[in-house]
Specification:
alpha+beta; two-stranded antiparallel ribbon; about 45% strand
Length: about 130
C-alpha cells in the first residue's frame, strides 16, 4: 500500500487502495466448473478461479444484480476476495474459502442481505448478555 499526502490538505494523509482489491470479479456461472463439498453441516457449492477456491455465499434474483455488486464492492473495500456470477435467472456472491467472512456466513454468524433495491447492508447478530 502506498501512503501519500494530499496536496490540498497537507495534514491529512490518505491511502490509495488498488482497484483490484475493491471490485469483485464478475463472471458467467456457465463458464465456471462448480463442485459440491460438505461444510457447516450442509452441502455447499464451490468453484475455483485464478488458483483460488470460492464458496457460494448467497444467491439473489437477477433484478438485484446491481445491489449485489454494490455489496461485493463494499466487502472488497474491506479486503475480501469475492466473485459475482450471473445466470439468466439469478446472480450469486462467492467468497474465497480462506476469507473469514465466508466462514461467518456459512456457519450462520453473519448474514448478507440487500435492503430495498439501493443500499446493501451487512447484518451481524447481536450477542445476548444472558
Amino acid at each position: 500500500m502506498i501512503l501519500r499526502q494530499c496536496r490540498y490538505l497537507p495534514c491529512t494523509p490518505f491511502l490509495f487502495t488498488p482497484i483490484a482489491a475493491v471490485l469483485p470479479t464478475v463472471l458467467y456461472e456457465s463458464h465456471l466448473k462448480t463442485f459440491k463439498f460438505w461444510f457447516a453441516d450442509a452441502v455447499q457449492d464451490g468453484t475455483h478461479h485464478n488458483n483460488e477456491l470460492f464458496c457460494r455465499l448467497v444467491t439473489y434474483d437477477l433484478s438485484d444484480r446491481g445491489p449485489a455488486y454494490q455489496l461485493g464492492c463494499r466487502l472488497g473495500q474491506q479486503g475480501y476476495m469475492l466473485l459475482l456470477t450471473v445466470t439468466p435467472t439469478d446472480c450469486s456472491l462467492w467468497g474465497g474459502l480462506r476469507e473469514p467472512i465466508t466462514h461467518a456466513v456459512l456457519t450462520g454468524a453473519m448474514e448478507l442481505e440487500l435492503t430495498g433495491s439501493v443500499l446493501p447492508t451487512i447484518v451481524t447478530p447481536v450477542p445476548n448478555d444472558e
